[in-house]
C-alpha cells in the first residue's frame, strides 16, 4: 500500500471511528442513565410494597390491641416509625437531617429513603420510613455489560471501517497503479533513445570536430535532463523495493563529478559557481542515492536561479550546503515544498519530484535537512550527517 493510500485510510478510519465512538458513547450514556433509573425504580417499588406490608401489620396490631414492636421487616431494610411530631416511636437507624416529608423518595449518599404517611394513625405511628442501600451490584453489572458491549462494538466497527476504507481508497489505488504503469512504460521507452543520444554525442565530441558547438551543447543539456528524469522516475517506481548497496563513497570526488556533469547547464544560464569542498570526505551510502541527492539539489539550484546568478556549494565532514540566488520559496510553502508533485513555481519546468526524492534519501540514512529561503532572494539547503 502506498503512503498516500495509508494516509487516506488512516484519516478515514480516524474520522469514522471517532464519530462512531462519540455516537455510541452518547447512546450508552443515555441507556446507562435509563437503566440505572429503572433499577432504582424497581427498588422503590419493592420498598413501597414492603411499606404496605408493614402498614398491614400495624393495622393488625392496632385491631388486636397489641403494642409489641418492632414490626417484622426484611433484613435489607432499616425501619423508623415516627409520630405526627416526628418523634421516633421505634427506629433502628437515624434518618438524615433536613429530610422533606412531603416527598415520597429520597436518594442520600447511595441510599434510598422511602417515606410513607400512615393515615389513620395506628399505634400512634404517623410516618413509616424505610432505608436501604442502592443496588450497587446491579449497577456494576450494568456498567460491565455496557463496557463489554462498547469493546465488542469497537472491534466490529474497526473491522468494518477497515474494509469500508479499503473500498474507499480502491479507486485511488487503481489510479496510482495506472500512473505507475504509465511511468514504467514511459521510462522504459525513454531509456534507450536517451542512452543512444548521450553515447553518440560523446563520440562525436571526442572523435570529430564539429562547428555547431552551440547546438551540440543544447543537445547535451537536453539529453542529460532526460537522463536525470529517467533516473528519478525509475527510483520513484521502485520506491520501497529499491535495493541499496551501502559502501564507502568519496563525496568530495563525487560532488566535483556532478558539478562537472552540470557545468554545461550552469554556463548556459551564465551562473557563477563558488565552491568550498573539503577533500576526501567519505560517507557510507549507496552511490546512486548520493548521486540522486546531489543531482536534484544542484539541478534545482540551476533551474530556479536567475540568469547571471550565483551558486555556492560547501562540503565539510559534517554537512553539504548549496545556496543559490534564485527566485526563492514563499514562507508558507516551505513546510510542504518537499511533497511529491509540489512545485514552488509553476512557470518553471519539472515534475515536482526532486525534493521528494531528496527527503526520501535523507530519511533513509537518518540525515537532517534544513531549507532556508526568501522570495526573490534565493534558497539555501543544508544536509547534515553524523561524523
TrEMBL record:
One of its GO terms (molecular function) is phosphorelay sensor kinase activity. It catalyses: ATP + protein L-histidine = ADP + protein N-phospho-L-histidine. The chain crosses the membrane at residues 12-34, 146-169. SUPFAM superfamilies: ATPase domain of HSP90 chaperone/DNA topoisomerase II/histidine kinase, Homodimeric domain of signal transducing histidine kinase. GO terms for cellular component: plasma membrane. It comes from the Bacteria. InterPro entries: BphY/WalK/GraS-like (IPR050351), HATPase_C_sf (IPR036890), HATPase_dom (IPR003594), His_kinase_dom (IPR005467), HisK_dim/P_dom (IPR003661), HisK_dim/P_sf (IPR036097), Sig_transdc_His_kin-like_C (IPR004358). Its EC number is 2.7.13.3. Keywords: Kinase, Membrane, Phosphoprotein, Transferase, Transmembrane, Transmembrane helix, Two-component regulatory system. PROSITE patterns: HIS_KIN. Coiled coil: none annotated. Residues 185-387 form the Histidine kinase domain. This is histidine kinase. It comes from Sulfurovum indicum.
Amino acid at each position: 500500500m502506498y503512503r498516500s493510500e495509508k494516509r487516506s485510510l488512516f484519516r478515514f478510519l480516524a474520522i469514522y471511528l471517532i464519530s462512531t465512538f462519540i455516537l455510541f458513547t452518547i447512546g450508552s450514556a443515555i441507556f446507562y442513565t435509563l437503566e440505572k433509573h429503572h433499577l432504582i425504580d424497581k427498588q422503590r417499588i419493592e420498598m413501597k410494597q414492603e411499606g404496605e406490608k408493614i402498614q398491614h401489620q400495624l393495622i393488625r396490631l392496632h385491631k388486636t390491641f397489641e403494642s409489641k414492636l418492632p414490626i417484622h421487616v426484611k433484613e435489607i431494610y432499616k425501619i423508623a416509625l415516627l409520630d405526627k411530631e416526628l418523634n421516633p416511636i421505634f427506629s433502628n437507624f437515624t434518618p438524615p437531617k433536613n429530610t422533606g416529608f412531603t416527598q415520597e423518595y429520597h436518594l442520600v449518599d447511595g441510599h434510598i429513603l422511602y417515606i410513607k404517611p400512615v393515615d389513620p394513625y395506628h399505634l400512634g405511628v404517623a410516618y413509616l420510613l424505610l432505608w436501604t442501600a442502592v443496588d450497587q451490584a446491579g449497577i456494576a453489572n450494568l456498567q460491565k455489560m455496557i463496557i463489554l458491549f462498547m469493546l465488542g462494538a469497537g472491534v466490529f466497527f474497526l473491522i468494518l471501517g477497515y474494509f469500508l476504507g479499503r473500498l474507499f481508497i480502491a479507486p485511488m489505488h487503481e489510479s496510482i497503479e495506472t500512473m505507475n504503469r504509465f511511468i514504467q512504460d514511459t521510462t522504459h521507452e525513454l531509456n534507450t533513445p536517451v542512452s543512444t543520444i548521450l553515447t553518440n554525442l560523446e563520440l562525436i565530441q571526442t572523435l570529430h570536430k564539429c562547428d555547431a558547438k552551440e547546438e551540440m551543447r543544447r543537445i547535451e543539456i537536453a539529453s542529460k535532463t532526460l537522463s536525470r528524469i529517467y533516473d528519478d522516475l525509475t527510483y520513484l517506481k521502485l520506491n520501497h523495493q529499491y535495493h541499496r548497496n551501502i559502501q564507502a563513497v568519496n563525496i568530495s570526488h563525487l560532488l566535483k563529478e556532478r558539478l562537472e556533469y552540470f557545468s554545461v547547464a550552469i554556463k548556459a544560464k551564465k551562473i557563477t559557481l563558488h565552491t568550498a569542498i573539503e577533500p576526501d570526505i567519505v560517507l557510507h551510502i549507496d552511490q546512486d542515492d548520493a548521486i540522486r541527492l546531489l543531482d536534484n539539489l544542484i539541478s534545482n539550484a540551476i533551474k530556479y536561479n536567475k540568469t547571471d546568478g550565483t551558486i555556492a556549494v560547501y562540503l565539510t565532514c559534517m554537512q553539504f550546503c548549496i545556496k543559490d540566488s534564485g527566485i526563492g520559496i514563499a514562507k508558507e510553502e516551505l513546510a510542504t515544498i518537499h511533497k511529491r508533485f509540489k512545485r514552488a513555481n509553476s512557470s518553471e519546468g519539472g515534475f515536482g519530484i526532486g525534493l521528494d526524492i531528496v527527503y526520501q534519501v535523507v530519511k533513509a540514512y537518518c540525515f537532517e535537512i534544513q531549507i532556508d529561503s526568501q522570495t526573490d532572494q534565493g534558497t539555501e539547503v543544508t544536509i547534515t550527517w553524523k561524523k
